Amino acid sequence: MAEDSKSRSLEDTPTWAVAVVCFVLVVISIFIEHAIHVLGKWLKKRNKPALYEALEKVKAELMLMGFISLLLTVLQGPISNICIPKSIADTWHPCAKNTEAKKFSGSSGRKLLEFSDDTTTIPRRSLASKYDKCVDKGKVAFVSSYGIHQLHIFIFVLAVCHILYCIITYALGRSKMRKWKAWENETKTIEYQYYNDPERFRFARDTSFGRRHLNFWSQSTLSLWIVCFFRQFFGSVTKVDYLTLRHGFIMAHLAPGNETKFDFQKYIKRSLDDDFKVVVGITPTIWFIAVMFLLAYTHGWYSYLWLPFIPLIIILMVGTKLQVIITKMGLRIQDRGDVVKGAPVVQPGDDLFWFGRPRFLLFLIHLVLFTNAFQLAFFFWSTYEFSIKSCYHENLEDIIIRVAMGVIIQVLCSYVTLPLYALVTQID
């Protein structure tokens, strides 16, 4: 009787109930659309074209996810009517068969109905068709109607996580750059101008930048990468690095005499906006990688022991590479001669980056941010749909690793690596 109540059609539902649901959904949609419109006007008024483009990309991604959800709704019947042999349907499950039976045999009717494949004894849930064609053929539906409904919920959770990740990423990046404002103000002081007198000669290794980077460890590739690996955790951008990279940029792009007039920190903030505009989008390549991540949640693959660490390894490699690039720019100063006049002038180049493409590092940062959001979205969705004690989280270490890695990667990527990337790449 309860199942009949859940599966009744609109012709058996009061019109006022349908009208109320539609009214609430329309009001919520109009409110969100108006809020996005107001935010866009505010960004235009504040002369932030990069952030406005980022907002447009977020709108496009939301529309894409909405279109995917719409397709799932329209194709729900045809997809659930695709029949496959039981032998194939029994492969690559996220949970072991015996685990499912143990965990849900004593649970509520909702759990039994969600996980049961035996449609001859237990009717499907509300979104399932009343008649399963595959049962008569001795086969199983490719994806059940209720499974498609759960995909709807996952897409919604993914959209919410993606938006929250974008906001957190930008907030942490700008927070890191606010600390650079004091260093920028220092360049306008008499002490800074005296210390960086263009008529002053010094050995390159005696400058602050030289003492930080021109050491015995910088002569060996192995020791260079080891030191740079740990540097990203302890002051990824120091004052001496910031001031030296600032001076290199001004010498390369501005006329002499503009050292104290140019606000380099403000310029880097605009560069962060441009980079942020890229990382909020989702390219087809990243969508494909996200689908591959779904395959990894197969029982027996122990994905919680290795999958969350892939984004961590990538972002640590990117951060290390950026530190290595700064040191190699210092080595180039020494290669031009032991004596420098005034402040050391760094000379960047695309050859310092992997494949000679600085934007490849931004792609990796973009990939890490989305896959991290994707994994946390999957964790929240599986917890909501199947509870924290489901077979998706049968190991305590699974929960700890996924949540801890999600937080660590987000902070490391947004607060450390992305601002460092904006600084290093803009001096070219």
UniProtKB/TrEMBL annotation:
Compartments it resides in: Membrane
Pfam families hit by this protein: Mlo
GO BP term, example: defense response
GO cellular component: membrane
UniProt topology in membrane: Multi-pass membrane protein
Example GO molecular function: calmodulin binding
Transmembrane regions: 16-39, 60-79, 151-172, 276-298, 304-326, 360-381, 401-424
Keyword Membrane: yes
Keywords from the named record: Calmodulin-binding, Membrane, Pathogenesis-related protein, Plant defense, Transmembrane, Transmembrane helix
Role: May be involved in modulation of pathogen defense and leaf cell death.
Family stated for the protein in its record: Belongs to the MLO family.
Record note on domains: The C-terminus contains a calmodulin-binding domain, which binds calmodulin in a calcium-dependent fashion.
PANTHER family tied to this protein: MLO-LIKE PROTEIN 1, MLO-LIKE PROTEIN 12
Protein name: MLO-like protein
Species whose genome carries this gene: Durio zibethinus
